[in-house]
Specification:
2 domains, alpha+beta, 5 helices, about 160 residues, four-stranded antiparallel beta sheet
């Protein structure tokens, strides 16, 4: 077992992820290899990843500089329901007829709404959101409005902002 992580080292790891918005690559070995080079803490990338996975990920609230939105971004995978069906294929401009395009679009919107409705309210952390449209969800308990940005694959939440 390596030397214990210092508070400064822990903060550097967390701040690196925030600064580079790497929430979606937390399980990717490449993220930890890159971070290890950048932070240059004289450790292995496996030790950074292990410390995050086993300690930091379970104690995010201890980092008082993190906003609730950032904490949720760290945990975002937990809030996403399993995908009920395959992701629609990207729309190809020529081969797809207009009615087909509109079907795909409706399906995409429906899918986004499902993801929003699997997301827990940032404030009361009890109720799941009700989708108002494809990019906004509302908490029926505390009435907080959440603006939601999706990744390019239309299925994963990248960012949630309270309105
Ligand atoms: Zn709420």
């Amino acid at each position: 077992m390596g030397r214990p992580f210092t508070t400064r080292e822990r903060e550097l790891i967390i701040k690196y992820i925030v600064r580079h918005r790497e929430y979606q690559r937390l399980t990717s070995a490449n993220l930890w290899k890159e971070m290890n080079i950048q932070l240059n803490l004289n450790r292995t990338w496996e030790s950074l990843r292990g410390h995050y996975k086993h300690v930091l990920a379970h104690n995010l609230e201890a980092f008082e500089f993190l906003t609730p939105e950032q904490i949720q971004s760290f945990k975002y995978k937990r809030y996403i329901a399993p995908t009920p069906r395959a992701v629609p294929k990207p729309l190809s401009s020529t081969a797809v007829s207009s009615s087909r395009t509109s079907d795909e679009r409706i399906k995409q919107i429906q899918q986004k709404r499902e993801v929003i409705e699997a997301t827990v309210c940032l404030r009361c952390k009890q109720n799941k959101l009700v989708a108002i449209n494809e990019n906004e969800g509302n908490c029926i308990k505390c009435n907080l409005k959440h603006e939601i940005t999706f990744e390019a694959n239309e299925k994963e939440i990248k960012e949630i902002q309270i309105k």
